[in-house]
Amino acid sequence: MAPTDRIVTETTFYVRYAETDAMGITHHANYIVYFEEARSHYSRELNADYADFERAGYWLTVAEVHARYIVPTHYAQRIGARCWIEQLRNRALTFGYEIVDAESGTVCVTGYSKHICISHEGRVSLIPKSFYAAMQKGLPQEGNSAS
Amino acid sequence: MAPTDRIVTETTFYVRYAETDAMGITHHANYIVYFEEARSHYSRELNADYADFERAGYWLTVAEVHARYIVPTHYAQRIGARCWIEQLRNRALTFGYEIVDAESGTVCVTGYSKHICISHEGRVSLIPKSFYAAMQKGLPQEGNSAS
Amino acid sequence: MAPTDRIVTETTFYVRYAETDAMGITHHANYIVYFEEARSHYSRELNADYADFERAGYWLTVAEVHARYIVPTHYAQRIGARCWIEQLRNRALTFGYEIVDAESGTVCVTGYSKHICISHEGRVSLIPKSFYAAMQKGLPQEGNSAS
Amino acid sequence: MAPTDRIVTETTFYVRYAETDAMGITHHANYIVYFEEARSHYSRELNADYADFERAGYWLTVAEVHARYIVPTHYAQRIGARCWIEQLRNRALTFGYEIVDAESGTVCVTGYSKHICISHEGRVSLIPKSFYAAMQKGLPQEGNSAS
Question: Within a domain: residue A146?
Answer without folding.
Answer: no
